[in-house]
Amino acid sequence: MTPPGVHPLRRMVAEADFRRLLRVRLGGQAGDGLFQGALFGAAFFNPEKATSAAAAASAFATVLLPYSLVGPFAGVLIDRWSRQRVLMVSNGLRAGLCAVFALSLWRTGAISVSSVGVALLLVSLNRFVLSALSASLPHVVETRDLVTANALTTTAGQAATAVGGISSLGLRALWGSDDSDAARTALAAALVYAVTCLLASRIARRRLGPEQAHEPAAMREALLDVARGLVEGARHLRSRAPAARALATITVQRFLTGVMFVGTLLLYTEHGYLHRGFTGLGEVLTATVVGGVVAASITPRVTRALGTQRWIAVVLLAAAVVTIGLGPAYTHPALVTAGLLLGTCSQAAKICVDTLLQESVDDAFRGRVFSVYDTMVNVSFAAAAGVAAVVVPDDGRSIGVLVVLAAGYATTGVVYGWVVRRRMPYEPPEPVVTAR
Fold it and tell me: Which of 86, 92, 245, 281 could form a disulfide with 268 if both were Cys (CB 3.0 to 4.6 A apart)?
């Protein structure tokens, strides 16, 4: 353990395996940004296609629901397998699947059933990667540094995704906007995933856990272990009230964000209210990432003064003010500003929730709990897309929806803050608040 007077960032950067794990996250999420740019460009921003709210909702549900069902199984396996091997093999498989997706687009000249199937497999593997990254982090940083570590890694990962997405915009401008050109972007993503696989191979096999090794089991026994593990993981989470409470809250927050995202996407399609295309949406998403960087810089300090749970309540209330204050203008500058502020609120909440889970959950259950976490927020996002298909017009503009979303943020923040205030005197203190 390094001396207490050393800044948390310096302590983390001094650890070689933390740097290696961070490189794996950055590489994988940059590949995600490139792949998502290729997929969104082909599905939503081809000038020859019109995008409706129902079409957008169907696309998100098609990707997110199967993706979410993989989550619990991923968690149990992550608690059984070497997490380093999970990161290495998953990125290698994603590289191969991304190349197949590109070839399918080239061959058919459009998104087909086969290319959708490959995309589903590829994003399902993302469950393994993100769950393994989150479960591995406590093995390479000290407990007192978890807020700072989550602030740095999750925000840097989102920034890497944004860089990948922006790169896809540049490639789109260079190559064109039809589906065969999107295939070239997918090939670039495949290359990035392959490099990430090599980066993961530089970490020692057992360095990232799990701490308890498991002998290989027959398939039937492994499936039974999945069922037993999910029950055990749910019981474990239920006994950790701060973690369970935070997970429920961010699930609601993710639903509200999902409705807003579908509406924003529709605003920027060729037939939307703003009709500024993929470039306009990219500017809003870039502002959101910058907001995440702001959250990463202020959250570790603020949580030492307010506490992790109080900060979640504050940022939810701030999100309500931003939504109702800037959203109804429906201008590009207002939406870019809203993206910056909402990105700050959303990322601050995620940093705190990740930290509460890591602090409260035993290592033997971390993979399962983080997979349940991922599953809940993605099912919530898919459900939000379904609701958006009904309540959001095809041009994306609806002041009534914004009022409801702002009320949702405010209610969630007030209820969560009230429960925290009542329960905090009876619960263990938040270790990260006093850690320096």
Answer: 281
Nearest Cα residue to 165 out of 53, 301, 89, 278: 278
Q: What is the pLDDT of residue 89?
A: 94
Q: What is the pTM of this model?
A: 0.72
- 301 located within any domain: yes
CATH number at residue 64: 1.20.1250.20
Q: Match 């990260």 to its residue by tokens.
A: 432
**Per the structure block, which two tokens stand in for 94?**
């994603």
pLDDT at 11: 86
Residue where the block lists tokens 């809250």: 249
- The answer on pLDDT for 272 being more than 90 is no
* Residue 3 forms part of a structural domain: no
The total of structural domains in the chain comes to 1
Do 320 and 402 touch, CB atoms closer than 8 A? no
Instruction: Give pairs for 328-331: CB < 8 Å, separation 24+.
Output: 328/399, 328/402, 330/267, 330/273, 330/274, 330/397
User: Where in the sequence is the domain holding 299, given as residue range(s)?
Assistant: 8-434
* Ramachandran angles phi, psi of 435, nearest 5°: -75, 140
pLDDT at 120: 77
